[in-house]
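Box 3.1. Reading complex inputs
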Amino acid sequence: MIWVVAIAFGTVIAAGTYLALSRDALRCVIGVAMLGSGVNLLVFASGRLQSHIPAIVPATQTQLTLAANPLPQALVLTAIVISFALLCFSLVLAARIVLERGDADLEELRFAEPHAPEGYKPSVEESQ
Amino acid sequence: MVHSVGDQETQRPDVLLLVLALFPASMFLVLLYALITQPLPWAASWTWVPSLGIDLTLWVDGLAAQFLLLITGIGTLVLIYAAGYLAGVTGRARVALLLLLFMAAMIGAVISDHLIVLFMFWELTSVLSFLLVGFSHEQENTRRSAQQALLVTGLGGLALLAGFILLGQIAETYSIQDLIARADRFVGDARLSAALLLIFAGAFTKSAQFPFHFWLPNAMAAPTPVSAYLHSATMVKLGIYLLARLDAAFSDLLLWEVVLVAVGTSTAVGAALQTMRERDLKRILAWSTVATLGTLTMLVGLPGQGAALAVATLFFAHALYKAPLFFVAGNLDHGAGTRIIDQLTGMRRYMPWTAAAALLAAISMAGLPLSFGFIAKDVLTIAKAESEVFKAVSYASVFVSGVSVAAAAVAAIHVFWGRDTVPREAHPHEGSWPMLFPPLLLVTLGVLFGLAPTLVDPILGAAARAIAPGLDADAVRNAYDATPVISATLSAVLIGVVIYRNWDRMHALLERAHFLDVLGPESWYWRKLAFLPKLAAWLTRRLQHGRLPGYVLVLIGTCSVVLFALVGVTWPTWQAVEVSAPELPVLLACALIAAGALATLFVRDHLVLLLVSGLVGYGSAALFLFTGAPDLAFTQFAVETVFVVVAATLLVRLRRAPATASSALREPVLRPVALVVSITFAVVLTALLLFVSAQPFDSTLSEYFGAQSVPAAHGRNVVNVIIVDFRALDTLGEIGVLLFALLAALPLLRLGRGARSEAT
């Protein structure tokens, strides 16, 4: 059964990476979000998919038996919420860039590292 | 150089330095007393870093004792000399402090028996040498010289460390004495050649051997006391010391003999040629020091007992005549304001005491009878006769001796005798007593030991026995035949006189030989040094290009390559993945995930892209639902729905904004590099997931939570119990993240609204 999940996981990672490498800020944000979903699948699947009984202790017992692994579920639950927060923030940020600049081209987004002037060549003396 | 000439105010010796000279002086006396009363060797050991197997083992045998005497004895005289030479100079206390620290480092290097401890002190001497050479740091030339000395010896030090570690692994010990004791067990090891070559690199850089010799004459930018101490008597001999120390273990190896004899001889000949190209007395002395170091290296390489005795004797003789000559050069600099020999003749009228010291030191340097230098030459000749060296090496050695005679004549006769051409307005004057006492004492000792060599016999014999165990010094001396010594001395003096008579002509001739500079390793050093910043600038321009997708590409690409290598290495140990037919709901959920992911690649419109990407989330939620994780499924459903609503609202608003009209991207639909990188990354991660799943599962933690949920936390939903009870602090942090994201997003949203209302 793991191989089906692995294929789905691989597809998500490939598509997410491809989107994340885009110049378009919104596509990049969605790519990062998909990478997050992919990693959730990875964590969940590496806890093994041995049972589809929820990890709830029956009323007649005090111990969990024959149920799904609760640990990766707890981890993924936290991850889902956090990546949601991250995603909302980056989306707002990307939208803000579009509003500010008119487009969302990440190649042109270089306030911190501006283009060198035409014909400029850093000299050795300067870099020393 | 660092003082105003003729300033009588600066002639008063500095009291602080004289007081500091008492430290090494008392050490010297204690050492002398101990040497007379306690038989060698002395050993002591403490555990230092047990986890790394590094013990602080001290071992003082004849070789170490000889070095200790030179380090403390000459160290005392150097401090006394500095009291006169640096009187009134700003920063003299710093020089004195650094000299004392350097002395401590040298002592540590020669008495430690552990290779790594030795290396540590070795590096310390390099660093302190950098600080001392760079004393007059206001001058750019000095800074460059200090940097060069540090880079050359520092890089050699790295090679040395690698060589030591390799040698330690081969010999299974880091103790030098153990290593010598069990040398015959590992001399056949194939890795030994590599270890020895690395150690050679370290020793040759330190002792200024070809092709690393060029830093030493440049280091003459140091104040004279520093040059006399570091670059003549002690630090540059450390490389020779190491080679002599290991000689007992490796002297039978062909590699050892060939490399040391070849490098030593070529260094000596090259340095002798360079001696004749110089006009600065201090640089002449520096090159002749390099020549002597070459001779010492050659002697260490020669097999035979006579060579060991010659190494010990030449060590001693060189310190006794070269240090005073450096003091003489310093006195001339101080008293006449120049070290250029053309401007210095007939100086004995103004500096009689310095002239006397120069003459006696020069006699020893030339190896004339009745001096200790003659004794050294004597033993050297025996050593060469004993070990049947190549004719070429023999001739080279005669040539080097001849140049050394000529250099001695330049230092003593040319400068102090002959016509007085010094201009009166230079006010040439004799140095104060601290500048005269050290050279005079050393040359007197040189004459004394030359007349009565038995005074130093015990220590030289002990040193030679440390280099070649089982050596019988008397037997070596009894085999002594006067004829070759006399003929060697005569031919050296003859060549020396010829060179001295024609010094100006040869100088003019050699000065034009610019190919020596262009082809030399020093020009290579400067080219490489200039190349480094260019390379750094090029790399920076390539790596810091300012394009975000490029950075992400490098990041993910690097991860892929590393993980790919990991997968490749572990591949053979992998177990087969069980392939079973999946249940239908899981299959469908996975198909939904994959379809959503693939569809995002073909959608150009942002709103549609957002909706399609939601399929991945909904597919994941379905998968969670059918694999026993209903909590996850509900959370994912909720999050996806809220997110799509939020994002759609935002996008719709963006579309209304007039500025977004130009947001059509100039990006090709197919990006091959990005495609290759993303597929590689995905394949590698998928392979890792399959690998992990095939491993046996450690369920300790999950079982613990399952067992403790009801008794300890009184909750039946184990996932919820983990989140709000066992890992409650994590959840608090998670809430914090949510709030921070909200706080950060709020001003952005508000500003956006503001910008839009302004635009409309």
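In summary: The first helix of chain B runs from residue 15 to 20.
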